[in-house]
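2024-03-11 09:14:02 INFO worker-7 job=invfold-0412 stage=load source=structure_tokens
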């Protein structure tokens, strides 16, 4: 475990160094300035998102023409899943949570916003879901396309990084040149008090300028979970960005609530013991919801 912690620390250092270079490159645009702090979105600034049984609750069909054209004219499709630990597929174990409850491992930050060293142990001790939602999306889309007699082949790329937040250059860390981007991120901006609105806007605008087909998704939340207030705020901003840029919003938040309300699952079935990250079953469920959203835009009948 100690070796894993060291490796994770080195990775964090490399990412921070790369971030510094990117900041120097992008700073003239002023996207990550202190002045942005006043632009954080509060609950009173966004209309409450209404629940729906549909996969997409804002700007439904907005991407349909683009997706159908893409799948008609290109055989091999790449979808980048850009996000944080929910995209990566992080989940914890009861043993790990016992260590946290006992104080053996601390997973937070100090008053200066610096990550405690124990966080490295936490992340390196947690597991990656098999499958993660990007894996479910690839599997399910290809199965449905094959059943429909289509020759397309979809490849998804999991660009989720645990603990990451939206910075002006987040789109630049994609490890592929995708046709489609599913963007599920921003919760850690509130957790770390990092300016969000202009950073989010800059990433969406950059992806659109590159001709990417963009879908936004919100966070499924465990009621009363330890980070719920941060991710509720994130969901409000995600809804705002969907409206502002006329992007489809895949509603994972309402879908998970409905599956628990109709007794399909219990909360504890869908979540890890930390009540923040999903279980394997939970990641499978949100992967199916995202699949439904994209497939409904692809099919022509």
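2024-03-11 09:14:09 INFO worker-7 stage=emit residues=301
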């Amino acid at each position: 475990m100690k070796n894993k912690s060291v490796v994770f620390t080195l990775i964090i250092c490399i990412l921070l160094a790369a971030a510094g270079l990117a900041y120097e490159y992008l700073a003239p645009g002023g996207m990550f300035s202190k002045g942005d702090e006043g632009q954080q979105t509060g609950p009173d600034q966004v209309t409450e998102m209404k629940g729906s049984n549909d996969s997409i609750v804002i700007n439904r069909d907005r991407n349909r023409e683009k997706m159908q054209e893409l799948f008609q004219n290109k055989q091999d499709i790449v979808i980048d899943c850009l996000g944080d630990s929910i995209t990566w597929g992080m989940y914890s174990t009861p043993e790990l949570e016992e260590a946290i409850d006992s104080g053996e491992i601390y997973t937070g930050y100090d008053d200066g916003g610096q990550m405690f060293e124990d966080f490295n142990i936490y992340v390196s001790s947690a597991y990656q879901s098999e499958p993660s939602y990007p894996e479910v999306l690839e599997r399910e889309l290809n199965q449905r396309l094959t059943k429909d007699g289509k020759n397309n082949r979809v490849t998804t790329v999991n660009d989720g990084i645990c603990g990451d937040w939206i910075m002006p250059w987040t789109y630049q860390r994609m490890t592929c040149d995708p046709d489609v981007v599913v963007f599920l991120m921003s919760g850690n901006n509130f957790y770390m008090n990092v300016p969000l609105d202009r950073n989010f806007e800059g990433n969406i605008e950059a992806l659109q300028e590159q001709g990417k087909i963009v879908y936004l998704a919100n966070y499924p939340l465990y009621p009363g979970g330890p980070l719920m207030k941060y991710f509720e705020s994130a969901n409000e901003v995600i809804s705002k960005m969907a409206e502002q840029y006329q992007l489809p919003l895949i509603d994972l938040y309402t879908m998970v609530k409905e599956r628990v309300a109709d007794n399909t699952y219990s909360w504890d079935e869908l979540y890890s013991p930390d009540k923040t990250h999903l279980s394997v079953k939970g990641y499978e469920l949100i992967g199916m919801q995202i699949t439904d959203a994209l497939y409904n835009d692809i099919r022509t009948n």
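2024-03-11 09:14:09 INFO worker-7 stage=report msg="The chain has one domain: 51-90+128-298."
2024-03-11 09:14:10 INFO worker-7 job finished
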